[in-house]
Amino acid sequence: MELIKNKVEEEVDDYDHEDDDTDEEEDVIIAQVKWRKHYSSVQKILLVGDGDFSFSLSLARAFGSARNMVATSLDSLEKIKKNYSDGIRNIMELEERGCVVLHGVDGKHMSDHFFLKTQRFDRIIYNFPHVGFHFPEENCCQIQMNKTLVKEFMKNAKALLRKENGEIHISHKEGDPYEKWNLVKKAEKIGLHLHDTVPFYKNDYPGYQNKRAHGSSADAPFQLGQANTYKFRLITHPL
To answer: Which residue positions does the secretion signal occupy (predicted)?
Structure first.
């Protein structure tokens, strides 16, 4: 664990010095802002539970660099190698582009992570959170487990979010039983409000491969159907 921690600290040394840029350098960066859908090369972005890291890589390729990104997964590096045909290749390209890649990061406890707790992000992204297929999707136990996952993720993401214009993005399937997860109500209870909801289209992110991520079919895609990205911001109260 200490070796891993030292490796991460070495990788993020340059990342932490971005705030030291001069005004002139910042002007150059602003002039070269690159976008992919809702995300830009000047936002500090945290990606959670990214499976084979293909979504992170789609952003990095659009930006031309990933120095503004931290990409994480719950899986260990060994498990990623076992479960995903392109996982290691995607990670290698992300790191070559300057991304900090972290493994074994649990979205329900990530605000306690030794590195993440020192950071604040403009965008925190979790696409299609899911605990795995323990029961049928419509089973009440399965629904409750997923609701708990989303609630704990939002609590932790809130702690890592920049107060000014920071957003937590959750992409989520629509219809029954997914509407029973009650994303908006759960967000409001922990001090977040729904800023916007926009349709999620896989084709907006070239190279992204949505994965089941669990069991013997971890590398297989799941049917997206109708899906939206929910954008949450901190609830602020006037003085």
So the answer is: none
